[in-house]
């Protein structure tokens, strides 16, 4: 049986999960694609805090100069990082961002309709009594 050539080893820009239980925190790092998620990276490009703060904001800090440097060197981005950079304006907006927004709007509309129906039934029950 012929030997298969080895898969290419390339650079990835991806999230490295830090933080603790129920409090995730991500570093945006450049790392070889075959390394473990939290292996020592070549460089840390930024941070991402997915938990909303008091103002309902998810905080992101990115060094765009170094990010452009690594992209010019041929590094590839993972899908979650592509979505984040699309929202930041560096890449085109990822199609899944539109789909997620549409799902969130639909879920909010359904929740609003449920609350409205519950309020109407409560109102009709109070007037009947």
TrEMBL record:
Pfam families for the chain: Ribosomal_S16
Keyword field contains Ribonucleoprotein: yes
Swiss-Prot/TrEMBL keywords: Mitochondrion, Ribonucleoprotein, Ribosomal protein
Ranges where the record places region Disordered: 102-129
GO MF annotation terms: structural constituent of ribosome
UniProt-annotated location(s): Mitochondrion
Keyword Ribonucleoprotein in record: yes
InterPro entries: Ribosomal_bS16 (IPR000307), Ribosomal_bS16_dom_sf (IPR023803)
GO aspect biological process, one term: mitochondrial translation
A cellular component annotation (GO) from this entry: mitochondrial small ribosomal subunit
Lineage: superkingdom: Eukaryota
Compositionally biased residues, Basic and acidic residues: 107-129
Homology family: Belongs to the bacterial ribosomal protein bS16 family.
UniProt-recorded name of the protein: Small ribosomal subunit protein bS16m
Organism: Littorina saxatilis
């Amino acid at each position: 049986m012929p030997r298969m050539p080895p898969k290419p080893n390339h650079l990835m820009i991806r999230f490295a999960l830090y933080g603790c239980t129920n409090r995730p925190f991500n570093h945006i790092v450049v790392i070889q694609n075959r390394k473990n998620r939290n292996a020592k990276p070549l460089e840390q490009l930024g941070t991402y805090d997915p938990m909303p703060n008091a103002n309902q904001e998810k905080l992101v800090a990115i060094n765009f100069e170094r990010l452009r440097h690594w992209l010019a060197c041929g590094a590839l981005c993972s899908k979650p990082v592509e979505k984040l950079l699309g929202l930041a304006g560096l890449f085109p907006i990822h199609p899944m961002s539109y789909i997620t927004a549409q799902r969130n709007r639909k879920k909010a509309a359904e929740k609003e309709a449920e609350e409205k129906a519950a309020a109407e039934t409560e109102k009709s029950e109070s007037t009947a009594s």
